[in-house]
Write a structure and sequence with these properties.
8 helices
Length: about 240
């Protein structure tokens, strides 16, 4: 009778202890889209606000949600080359950005548009209706070129700060964005419903860097639910 090898003995030299080769790792999931354009204002560009702490600690070098989304997508879809391009511009308004979006689409040739804009419109005196009409124009223009639009609601704001005089209007604007998205057949990414106000920084308007990480995770989940394909062995 052949003696049983002691624990840790590997007769086959495979590292499994059974003499059989280890199974190959499962293939990663894939996406049906590979080029994504993120468009908007400072919340897309990555303007951060310091966290609310007693010691005023800084989160480090600001990193935008498209940058973080690129990292998440590259890690998850390692068998593909996913490109996330950042066309955020601080201070811009949706009402003024229709031509800029057209130029960004021309340069990027995206399959998907992530649209997050409108806070600066409200701060400049535009009405909810004017802001949503401007967003709808951009949604329509992108869809006319065969681009799938994911439009986001705005995150909550903390009242009482220099640039948050319209914090109470944000829910009404977001309701109008939801209605417009449904009318236009755009995919809604409801940042407002999923974003804790604790991740809004000292200025009451911009997220902390951890907040932009949360943005990226919310957008990644929306993209995956729409386009992710499980690997063959998992189907």
């Amino acid at each position: 009778m052949r003696p049983t090898p002691p624990p840790g003995n590997d007769p086959g030299g495979t590292g499994t202890g059974t003499g059989n080769p280890p199974p190959p790792p499962p293939p990663p999931p894939t996406l049906n889209v590979t080029r994504i354009l993120a468009f908007g204002d400072s919340m897309t560009a990555g303007t951060t606000s310091a966290p609310l702490t007693l010691f005023g600690l800084d989160a480090g070098i600001p990193a935008s949600y498209p940058f973080k989304l690129q990292a998440l997508e590259s890690e998850r879809y390692s068998a593909q080359s996913i490109t996330v391009l950042n066309a955020g511009r601080p201070g811009n308004k949706a009402e003024d950005d229709r031509e800029r979006l057209a130029n960004a689409i021309k340069d990027a040739s995206p399959q998907v548009l992530l649209l997050l804009e409108g806070a600066n419109d409200l701060n400049s005196g535009e009405t909810v209706r004017q802001t949503v009409d401007a967003l709808e124009d951009m949604v329509r223009d992108a869809q006319a070129q065969g681009i799938t639009v994911l439009i986001a609601t705005l995150p909550p704001q903390r009242p009482g700060q220099k640039n948050t005089g319209n914090a109470a209007v944000i829910p009404r604007l977001n309701d109008a964005i939801r209605t417009m998205a449904d009318k236009k057949g755009a995919t809604l990414v409801d940042l407002y419903a999923q974003f804790p106000i604790e991740l809004i920084g000292q200025d009451g308007l911009h997220p902390t860097e951890a907040g932009y990480q949360k943005f990226a995770e919310i957008f990644q989940a929306a993209i995956a639910s729409k386009w992710e394909q499980a690997p063959p062995s998992a189907r």
